[in-house]
Queue: 4 jobs
Job 1
Amino acid sequence: MPQPEISQSHPPVVKKRISDPLSVQVLLVGLTYLFFIGFIFLPLGLVFSQAFGKGWSVYLEAIREPYAIEAVKLTLLTVAIVVPVNAVFGVAAAWAITKFNFPGKSTLKSLLDLPFAVSPVIAGLIFVLLVGSRTPFGSWLGEHGIKIIFSTPGIIIATIFVTFPFIARELIPLMESQGRDEEEAALTLGAKGWQIFWTVTLPNIRWGLLYGTILCGARSIGEFGAVSVVSGHIRGQTNTVPLHVEILYSEYNFTASFAVASLLVFLALLTVVVKSTMEKHFQKNSFHH
Amino acid sequence: MALFQIKRRNILPGFGLSMGYTVFYLSAIVIVPVSMIFFNTFPMGWEPFVNAVTAPRVIASYKLSFSTAFFAALFDAFAGLLTAWVLVRYRFPGKQFLDALVDLPFALPTAVAGICFATLYSPIGWLGQLLAPLNLHIINTPTGIIIALIFIGFPFVVRTIQPVLEEMEQEIEEAAHCLGATRWQTFTKILLPHLFPALLTGVTLAFARGIGEYGSVIFIAGNLPMKTEIAPLMIMSKLDQFDYAGASAVALVLLLISFTMLLLLNAVQEWQQKEYRS
C-alpha cells in the first residue's frame, strides 16, 4: 500500500526546543565568523597569497631547491623514527596502566603528561644539558665519535620527548573503557600473550592508535622550539622544514619561506580534515568496531 | 580472598614486559633529561641562582610571558565559549567547516603561525595597513604576542567546553524557562555555573601553553630586551652564550610554575567530577 510509505517520507516531527531569538543567533554566529576570519582564514589566505604571489614557477623553484629538499628529507626521517617508537611506547604504557593494578599508577599517568607542561625551549635545553658537547656524558660520547646535539639524533630525541604523550593519551581512556574481559576470555580459551595482543587487543584499539599516530605525526613534522635548540641550523644537514621556513624568513626571502610553509599548511589542513572525519565516525560507531 | 585478588590481578600476561619498558623509556626520555635542570642549577648555590633569576631582564621576561599568556587566555575564554556555544547549539552554513578548523592551531606548525601573524600585522601587511593610520602598532609590542597566543590557546578552550555543552540536558533550560526565567538569567544562573569548571580547565591549559610558547611568538614580538623578550627566549639567549647554569635557573622557575599550575588543574578537575556527580 502506498499510503503509509508517503506518511513515512515526511520529516519526523521534532519537538521544538527553546532556543535563542534569531537575531541573537545571527549576531553570535557573525561574531564567531569574525574571529575565524581574523585568526584562521586571513593567516591561511596569506600563506597562499605570498607563496603563489610570484607565480607557479617561483613557487616550484622554492620547494625544489636542494636545501628545501634536504629539509623535507630530514623531517620525513624524523617522523619515520619518532612515530613508530612512540607508538610502541604508547601501547606498552597503555597495556601496563589499563590491564593491571599497581601502586603509583596515578603518578605514572601524570608523568606521561609531563612533556605537555614543559616549554618546547626547555625540552631542547634538557637534552643540551644531558648530551651537549660541554657536558661530561656528551664529551665522552664525542671522544667515541658520537655526536647528538647539533646533529640528527638530537633532533629525533627532542621530537620524541615533545610528542611522546600523544599516543598513550589516546589509548589509555580507550583501553580503560574496554576493560579486560575480552583478553581474559581469550586467555581462558588458551591463547598466548602475543596472540591475545595481535588478535584481540590490537583490532579493538586500531582506530585510537591511528588517531594518536596522526596527532603525533603532525606534531613531529611541525615541532619548532625544541628542535631549534638542538639543531644548530646547519643548512642541508640539521635543518628541518619548520627551521628552513624560519631561516628563509629571517633572510627576507618571504616568497620562498611561505612557499615551503605552504607545504606544512597543506599537511595541517589534511590532519584537521582526517581528525574531524574520524571523530564523526567514532561518534556514530563508538571507538571499537 | 586476598589470594584470589592477587591472582585475578595478574591473570593477564605481559605486566613485566610492558611495565619494564614503560619505566625504562620514561626514565630515559623524560625523567633523567628533566632532572638535568635540577643538577645544573643546584651547584650554582643559592645566591648566584637568585641573582640569575632576579636579573631585571629576566624578571621583565617573566612578567611579559605571564601577562601576555594571561590576557590571551582571558580572550580565549570569551572566544572559546562563543565558538563552542555556536557550534553545539545552532545550525548555520559552514558549521562543519568551522568545527574542523578549530583544531588548526594544534596542527599548524608554530613557526608558520608566527610568520603569518608577523606578516599580517607588519606596517605593509593586510591588517597592519589598516591599523597604522589609527596609530595602532601590533608588531614588536606585547599586543602582538597576545595575538599569537590567542591563536595558540583557542582550541584548548573550545575542545574542553564542547563535550560538556553537548552532554548538558536542555530540559534544565526548559524548566528554567517554564519557571519564568529569561534567556539571559538561564545563561548566567544555570549554564555558566555548569560550564565553569570546563571553562577554567580550558583557560588554564591555554595559559600554561602560552607561558612556554616560542615558535609563534618570536617573529611578531621583535624580541627587544626589557620590552618584548619572552621567558623562553631568555633561556635561548643564555644557551647561545653557553651560560648553561643561567639557562637552567630560568628554566627551573618556569618549570616549577608550570607544575604548580598542573597540580592546581588536577585539583580543579577532581572538584569538577565531584560537582558533576552531585
Job 2
Amino acid sequence: MRDARGDVRRPIGLRLWLSGGWLALLTVAALCAPWLAPKDPLMQDLFLGRMPPFWMEGAEPGYLLGTDSLGRDVLSRILYGARLALIVALVAGTLTCVIGATLGLMAGYYRGWTDRVISRFVDIWMAFPPVLFAILLIAVLGPGLVSIIIAIVIIDWTRFARVIRAEAMSQGAMDYVASAQVAGRTRFGTMLTEILPNVLPTIIALLTLEMGIAVIVEAILSFVNLSISTDSPTWGGMIAEGRTSVHQAWWVLVFPLITLFLTVLSFSQLGEGLKDRFDPVLR
Amino acid sequence: MALLRNILIRLITTLVTLFGVAVIVFVVIRVVPGNPIAMMLPPGATDADIARLQAQYGFDKSIFEQFVIWLGGVVQGDFGQSISLRQPVAQLVLGRLPATLELSLMALLMAVLIGGTMALLGTLFRNTRTEGAVDVTAGMALSIPDFLWGLVLILLFGVLWPVFHISGRISPSLNIDFTTNFYLFEALVRLRFDVVADLIGHMFMPALALAIPLAAIIAQLLKQSLKETMHLDYVTLARTKGYGENHVILREALPNAVLPTLTLVGVQFTFLIGGTVIIERLFSYEGLGNMAIDAVINRDLPLIQGIVILFALLFTLVNLVVDMLYVVLNPRLRHA
C-alpha cells in the first residue's frame, strides 16, 4: 500500500530479522533434512539409549544432542520433525486463512442473513473448547497429516472470520465503497477490489499468527498420541516422550521444546511486526 | 425494560448456541469409526451379545432418534451412562468439575495479580525502561501458548529446581476424607493448612501455565486504558489537589480503567478454561479435561457429549456473568 504522506519506511527492525531468520533456517533444515541429519531419525539402537548431548560426560560421538530411550538421534529427529511442522503451518494456515477470511468478508460486507448465519456458527464454535474439539475431530477422521490439516481448518476458521468481519464492516461503511458502487461495480466486484485490499494487511498478520498456532496444534495432537503414525518424528511426539523421562534424560524434552518455542515465537513476532509495518495508522 | 429484554435475548441465544453445540457433537462423534460396544466386551463375545448391548445403549436406532432420546434425558438432568466407566455421566462429570473450576479460578487469580501488577508498574514508571520491560515481557508471554509454558515450567520447577509437584492434584498421604470435590476450598474451611499447601504445590504450575498468556493480555489492556484515563480532567484535578502519584493511579484512574479490560478478560477466561484440557493432561491433574481426552481415546460417546456440553455451558455462563458485571460496575448503565 502507498502512504499518502510519502514513503517514510521504518527500518525492518531486529524483531523481524530474528524471527524471519529463524524461520528461514528452519525451512532450510526441513528441505535438506536428508543431507543435514547425521543419522537416520528412525534408527533404534537400544545399546545407545538416553545418551547425553556432546558436552556432557558419557556422550556418544556422532550424537550431538544425545539420544532418546530407544537410542534414536535427537538432532536428526528435530530436523525431520521440522518438515511436518512446516507443512502443517503452510497448508493448514493458508487454508484456514482462505476459508475464514472469505466467510468473514462476506458476513461483514453483505450483512443481512449471510451475516446472521455465519455469526451464529461463529458463536457456536466459540462455545467449544478448541483442544478437545481438535482431539475429537482426529478421533473421527483418523490419524494422519490430512486429518490434522482438516481439523485445524475446522477449528480455527472463526479466528479469521471474526476479525475480518469486523474490519470489512467498518470498511464497508466508508465513502469510497459507496462511490465504487455508484460507479456501477457489482457488490461482489466491490468486495474484491475495494474491501479486500484494505483488509489484506490484517489478513497477512493473522495468517502468520495462525501458522504458529497450527504448529502448536500439531504438537498437542502428537503429544496426546493422535497425530500421524507414531514412528515418524514429530516435535510433539518427542516432547511427549521427553515428558515421561524428564528426570532421566532432560535433553529429550529440552531440545525439541526450544525448537518449538522459537518457531512459535518467530511466527507470532513476524505477524506482529508485519501488522505494525502494514498498518497505515501506525506508520 | 430494555435491560430485561436484553437478558431475555441473551438467554435465548445462549440456548440456541448450546443446542447447536449438542447437535454438532452428537453428529460428529457418531461418525467415529470403531464400535464402542465391541471395545467393552471380552474378545469371545458373540454377535448377539454385541447387538444386545447396542440396544441397551440405544446405538441401534437412527442418529435422529438417539438425539431425541438423549435430549429428553438431558432436560431431566440425565446425560446417559458412561460406556468405559459404567457410571452415570452426570455424576462423573459433576465429580470432576470442581477440580477444573478450582484450577481455572486459581489461574484467573494469578493472571489478575500478575497482569495487574505489571500494568501498574508500567503506568507508575511510564516512559522509562521499566515500561519497556513490561511491554516486551507481555509481548513474549502472549506469543507462547499455555501448553508450551507448562512444559517450560516443568523443566524449571520440576527438574532444575524441583519445588513443585509435576503431576496429580493431591499427595495420597494427605488425602483426607473430603466431603466435597472442592478440595482447596474445603481444606481452607477446615483449616487444614498442610493440605492447602500440598494442593497449591500441585496446582501452582498448571495454574501458572494457564495464567501467563491471560496475565499478558491484562497487562497490555489495563496499561493502555490507564494511560488514556491518566489524561482525563478529573485525574488532573486530583493531582492539582495535591494527591500523590500512587493515590492518583490506584484510587482515581484504576476504577475507571478496569471496565474495558473486564469485557475482554471475560472472553479470554473462556479460552483459559478451554486450555485446561491439555494442561490437565500435561500435569496429570484429575479434572474434566483429562477425563475428556480419555473419553475420546476410549470412544465413550455419552461421556464425550456430557463433557463438551458442560464446557459449552461454562463458556456461555462466564460470558453472561461478565456482561452482568459490566452493567453493575458501569455507573452509566446502572440506571438504564
Job 3
Amino acid sequence: MVEDEGIRRYVAHFILWIGIAIVAFPVYIAIIASTQDNALIANGQMSLLPGGHFFEVYYQTIFVGTSGSTREPVGNMMLNSLVMALAIAIGKIAISIISAYAIVYFRFPFRMSIFWIIFITLMLPVEVRIYPTYKIVADLHMLDSYAGLALPLIASATATLLFRQFFMTVPDELLEASRIDGAGPLRFFWDTLLPLSRTNMAALFVILFILGWNQYLWPLLITTRDDMQTIQVGIRKMITTTDALTEWPIVMATAVLAMLPPVFVVVAMQKLFVRGLVETEK
Amino acid sequence: MQKQAIFQSKLLPYALVAPQLAIVLIFFYWPALQAVIQSFLLQDAFGLSTSFVWFDNYIELFKDPAYFEAVVRTFFFSFAIAISSLSFALLLAVMADKPLRGSMLYRTLLIWPYAVAPPVVGVLWIFMLHPSLGVISRYLRAAGIDWNPLLDGNQAAGLIILAAAWKQISYNFLFFLAGLQAIPKSVFEAAAIDGARPMRRFWTVTFPLLSPTIFFLLVVNIVYAFFDTFGIIDTMTRGGPGTSTVTLVYKVYSDGLLGGNLGSSAAQSVVLMIMVIVLTGIQFRFVERKVTY
C-alpha cells in the first residue's frame, strides 16, 4: 500500500497460514482417523500420521456400512443424498424461473399478491413448521420417499427474486425483436431468456446443490427406513451413545465422504460459487 | 419498476406460477397456519376433544423456566458464535486483502468449510475433543484441565460455540474480503499521507467503511446460529448434558419427538416464526444500504 510492507507482509502470510491450519485441522484429523484401527482410536492412542487401513475402511464404509448401529452401506446413503440434492436444486430453479417469468413478462390479476405470497416464504424456514409439515407429508403418503424429502424444501423465494431481478435488466428490445420474428411467449422464454440466464442458473445451482446435500433436520424426521437415509442422517446414527460401540474409522470415513461432493463443488467451481453466494444474499 | 414490453395471455401466466404456488401453499402456508391454529387449542389427555384456549399455551410457555432458559441460551450462543467468528474472519480478510503472492490460493484454502454440513462439523469436533479419545483432549488433560464436555454443561456449550463459529469463518471471510475490496485504495493513501499508522487506519477508516458489511453479517450469523446449529448440537451433545445445549429450535424438535403437548410445541413454532420475521425484516432494511460488490 503506502509504507514499505516487508515485515508486515510476512506477518500477513503467517496469520493466513494459521487461519488455514485452524480451518483444515479437524478435517486432517478425520482423514487420518479414517485410515486407522478402531481399537487404537478407542484407547485414545490415535496417531497423528496416516495408518495403513485406508482401503479396508473405505471399502467397508461404502459397500457394507458399520457392523453395529446402522448396517446401511454409505454408498447407498450418498446416492440418496445425491438424488435429494439434485431434486432440490433443479426443482427450485425450474419452478422459480417460470414463476419469475410470469411475474415479469405478463400483466394479470393478482400478479403482485402472488409475488408476495412467494416472497413471504422467506420467513417460514422448515424449522418453524416441522411437525405440521411432517403431518402433511405423512397424510400424502410421502414419508420415506424422494418426493417427501425434496418437495417441502423446493419452493424458494430467493431464486424467484433473483430471476425477477435479472429479467428486469434484460433489454426490452430483445422481446420486440423476437416478436417481430413471430415468436410467442414460450418460444421467447426458451430461445432467448433461458440462454441468457445460463450463468445465473449455474451459480444458483452450485449454492442450492450444497444446501440440498447438507440438509439435515428434515431428512432426519421423515426417513424411518435405513435404505432411505441420507448421509448426514446416517452419520449421526453411527455415533452410538455407548462410546465403546462407535466404529470411529468408519464414522470418520463417512464424514470425509459426506464432505467430498460439496467441497469439490466449491473448489472446482469457485467463481460460480462466490457469485451464487453473493447473489442469493442480496 | 415494471417492464414495458410484455406478453398478452390470459391463462399462461397462471400456468407458469402454478407449480411454485402449489408447493408454497401446501408445504409452507398450510403447515404454518396449522401451527398458528394449534397454538390456540388445548387437547385433552386422550386426544378426544380440543378446546379453544386463547393465549393459554403462550402464557404457559413463557412461565416455563426451561423455555426462558432456552431463549437466553439461544441468544447467548448466537452472539458468542457471531462475534468470535466475525472477528477471526475479519482478521483473515484484512490480511488476505493485502497484495500478497498467492492470494487466490489463500482464498480457496479458506472458503471450502462453507460446504461442510452442520452434522459433519459436529462429528469432526466431538471427535477431536471427545473426553476419552479426542486428540486435543489428551493435551487438555495433560495441562491439568478436567475436560469432559459430555458431563460439564459449560464445556459442552463452549464446544458448540467453537464448532459453529469454525464453520461460519469461511462465509464471513468471503463477504469481508468482498467488502474490503470494494473500498477504494485512495482512501487509505489519503489517511497514510495524513500520517495515520496502519492500526489507526484500520479503526478510523476501514472499520467504519466496512460497517454495512459487518451489520449485514451480524444478522446473517445470528440467523445461522438460530437454525443451522441444530445439526451441530444434535451430533455433538443432543442437547445435553441435562438441557445445557438446548436451543429454541432444538427444543421444538425434542419436545415434538416426545409427542407431548401439541399446543405448546405449536406455540413454540409460532414464537420462532415471529423471531424469523423480525430478523428477516432487519436484514432487508439494511440490505438496501449494503456495500455493492
Job 4
Amino acid sequence: MLSSSSSKPPTQQLLQSADLISQGAEAAIYKAYLRQFSTSGHGIGHGAALEALEPVLLKYRFRKHYRHLSLDTSLTRQRIAGEARALMRCMRSGVIVPGIRMVDVNEGVLGIEWIDGKSVRQILPGGAELEDISELGEVDEIHENGAADSIADYGVSRGRTVRMLIGSYSTSVDALMDMIGVEIAKMHLADIIHGDLTTSNMMLRKQTSDLVLIDFGLAYHSTLVEDKAVDLYVLERAFASTHPDSEPLFAGVLSAYEKRMCKHWLPIKKRLDDVRLRGRKRSMVG
Amino acid sequence: MPGRRRESPLKNPSRAYIALGLEGSANKLGAGVIKHAVDGSTEVLSNVRHTYITPPGEGFLPRDTAQHHREWALTVIKDAVAKANITMHDLDCICYTKGPGMGAPLQSVALVARTLSLLYEKPLVGVNHCVGHIEMGRQVTGAQNPVVLYVSGGNTQVIAYSRQCYRIFGETLDIAVGNCLDRFARVINLSNDPSPGYNIEQEAKKGKRLVPLPYTTKGMDVSLSGILTSIEAYTSDRRYRAQGSPCEESEDIITPADLCFSLQETVFSMLVEITERAMAHIGSREVLIVGGVGCNERLQEMMGIMAQERGGLVFATDERFCIDNGIMIAQAGLLSYRMGFQTPLTKSTCTQRFRTDEVHVAWRS
C-alpha cells in the first residue's frame, strides 16, 4: 500500500487539482490522476510501466462542524484507517473491491482505484427513476448519474453476455443478484462486515461486468454471526426501501449467499430470522 | 417541490371543520381543538396538556400513568373546549391516539374518546401518534417535503414521505433516544420536572470533558443501549464525582455534567449523521425535527449546522408542539377525516405497536 502520510502539501495539492464528482453525506468524492510508477509498491498486478495517468477516486472526509472536534477527529481517523484495512483484507480474500492507491489519515483522504461503471441501484428498476422524494438529484452516487435506460453495455458475467432488456429481465437480474450474493459471502467468509450494504454501494464494472463492492466507510472486522446477519438485514431493508416491490430480488441474493457460505449459512440464517423479529423493526400484530 | 408537485388530493373544505384531539400514549395527557377554515388555513383553538411527573430516580409505570390520565381527562378536555370557545356540539369529529404507546394509558384515553363519541354522536378517528407528530410539524413550520427525524421517549426514526406513505429510512435498533436520556437522568438522580431530557440539556451546558463512548451508527440505523450501559459505567469510575463541580479543570475528575455533555454530543452526532445520510440518499434539503427530544436546542443547533453545510433548511418546533400534545392528534385526525376516513366504534381499539409506515397518507399527493 502506497502511503503518503506525513506529507501534508501533496495531498492538499492533489485535492486541489481534482474534480469534485459528488458530495455525499460522509465525504466529498473527487476524481484525480496519479502517475503510474513502474516500480512495484502498489501490491496490485499492474506491472507494466505505463506513462498514462491513472484515474483515482479520492474520498475526502471533510470536517463535520456539527460534531465535537475531538469526536470528529478520532472518528475520521478511525474510518479512513478502517476502510483501508477492510479493503486490504477483502482483496487478500479475493473479494472484488477497488484497489487502494493512497491513505492519508491526518488529512482524511483515501485514494482508491477508479471503477468505470454504474451502481446496481441505477441498474435495478425503481432505483434510478427515483420517485417524487428523490427527484432532486444530488444523490449519494459516486459515478455519473445517467438514467438507467440503456443497460445493454453491461453484460453479466459467467461467460455469456446477457442483455438486460425488459423481456429477459428476470434471468439477467437473477444473475446480478447471484453475483451480489457471492461477493457478500466472500466478504463475510473473510470476516469483513460492510456495515452499509445498499444497492448504491455496489457497482457493475463496464469492461468486465464484475460486481464490485464499494464504500467500506462503515466496514469492520468481526467473526460474529450477529454482525453478518445484521449486515444482510441492512441490505434487505435497503432493497425494500429503494426498490419497491422487489423483495424477491433479495431472495435471489440470499440463495447465492447460502450456496457460497456452505456450513456457515445455517447459524447466520437463524440469526437473520432473529434480527428480523427483534425490536421494533416489524409490527408484531396478534 | 414547487412546480413539480402533483395536485394535492385534499381540497379546501366547503365549510369550517373543527376537531378535538386526545393524546395519552405516554405520561402526557393532552387535549387540543383545531379548526380548518374554508380558505384552507388551519387554526389552533386550544392546546392543553397535563404531565404525570414522577419523583427523581423513578420512571412512569403504565398503571400509574393510566390512573393519572383517568383522573385528569375531564379537567383537561373541559379546559380545552372552554379555551377554544366552542361547545362539544360544534365538533366534527373526535380524534384519539390509536398507537403506538403504552397500553394502559392508551386504553384509558381511547375509552374517554369512545364515551364522548357516543354521548355527543360524533364520529371517531383513530390516529397514529408518529403521523400526528409529522403532520403537526409540517403544519407549524410550513416545511413542504422534509426528511423527518422523529425523536422521543419511545421512538427514534428517520422518515421520508413517498407514495402516500411515510417510509422509515432509519431507526433505533434497540431503545429510543429519549429513553436513553431519561434512564441516564434517573441514574444520576436528575429531576423529572419538567422533563428529564430538559434537565440533562441544562446539565450538559456545564459539561466540558468529552468522555469516550461507543459510536454506533449502523447504516441508517443507530443502536443506543450500549451507549447507555457505557455511560452508566462511568458513574462507578474512580474519577467520577457525583457532587463534583466542573470548574476544577486541572483535576482528573468526571462530573455528572461532563457525562450529560458527552452523552448528548455522541448521541446527537449519531442522529444528525443518519439524518444526513437519509437526506443524501433521497436528495432532500429539508429536515424537520419532531418529538419530545426535538425541543433540545443542542440537537437543533447541530442539525442546523449540518443543514447549512448542505445548503438546506432545518425546521423545528417548540415544546408546545414537540412534546406530545392533543392538537397534533386533532390535526392528523382531521386531515384523514376530511379524506373520508372514520374509525367505527367496533374498531376503535388501540395498539402498542403501530408503525408509521402502516398508515395510508390519503391527504398527500
